[in-house]
Amino acid sequence: MKETLSYVIATPYSVAKSKTGGVISRLLSRLDLELIGAQMITPDEKFVKEYADCIRAAGSKSVNADIDLLANYIEQNMGPSGGRPHRCLLMVFKGENPCQKLSATCGTLFHDDKNGQAFDVESVHGETIRDTYADLIYAPNDPKKVIYFEPAVLTPRNQSLADKSLEIFARFLKKSENIVQNYSYPDPSQVEKTLVIIKPDNWNYASSRPGTIIDMFSRTGLRIVGIKIHRFSMRQALEFYGPVEAALIEKIGPAYGHKARITLEREFQITLKEDMETSLVNSFGTEYAREQFRKIIEFMSGLRPDFCAPDEIDKPGKVKCMILVYEGVYAISKIRDVLGPTDPLKAPGGTVRREFGSSIMINTAHASDSRAAYLREKEIVRINENSLESLISENLI
After folding, report:
1. 258 given a catalytic annotation
2. Between 117 and 114, whose confidence is greater?
3. Is the pTM value of this prediction over 0.90?
């Protein structure tokens, strides 16, 4: 069966209330679809009207109440208010029957009682995203009149609507920045941005881990202002982790040179001179450190630097990660406190690396450790660019 695209949008309310991680957890852990792209967007009035009209045009007599409610919500809540645009998270999935699968996971707008009785909150069981995160409140004296509606997520019911919506999104994304700016702080001097990478080990199989990590970071109270799915090229991985190679040689080279001396003395029943250990540090210890560096590059790009052909160095790697930009007061230290130390075994309980890391190399996530590091890292991964628009356009052709 042909693979097609569909999408889920986390609404402004879901994003502002930090429900993003929970939504992503449900989507990634329950589906056999691939998340091919994600972007934080701030819809303008033109986008909102076009999207709402697209929803209405796809309606039918049997679902007109749902369609009107949804289209009205889009017009009233997704566009700017008071001159300020609002953040929405657009996630695009690829696979077989994506609309059917995403709709089942997101859930219905209404909970109809088969016996014709009025809606009863006890009939909701929390199975779907909307069961957990959406709100639908009826008037006390009129069970058919909705007085409050928050759908939590938006997703199309069929492929025709998905394709038409995605065409609208692609046009909008073509002129959109990947880092959104829609908030002013009382003291801008304290405001920082920091770059977080949810590393490739979180994407090996269908898992709630990426969403859970985002949910853990949400306790910082920081705002996600940028997000994208990324595959490190060999050049990017080497540049990003370049400073690590010298640090590894300095830190673990002497230790493993010393271990090599002890092993040789024990194995061959011989006492080696001090200058021999120095030689082992400069040879074996240094090579061991460099091999660890090559493993880091392979972990982040899916390719070993010593086996990468020159014409492959700038191509996207074989493994993916998610890159996020957080913004807020003292964002760098707040994120790193939740992340935990490099070694997961030394990380405090309740930190991301303690929960999900397995070793110093496979420690599940990265976060900038200074303002200078953020400025350097964002340029390497080209955080201002997002390939989502081109991915949508290529797949809709």
Report:
1. no
2. 117
3. yes
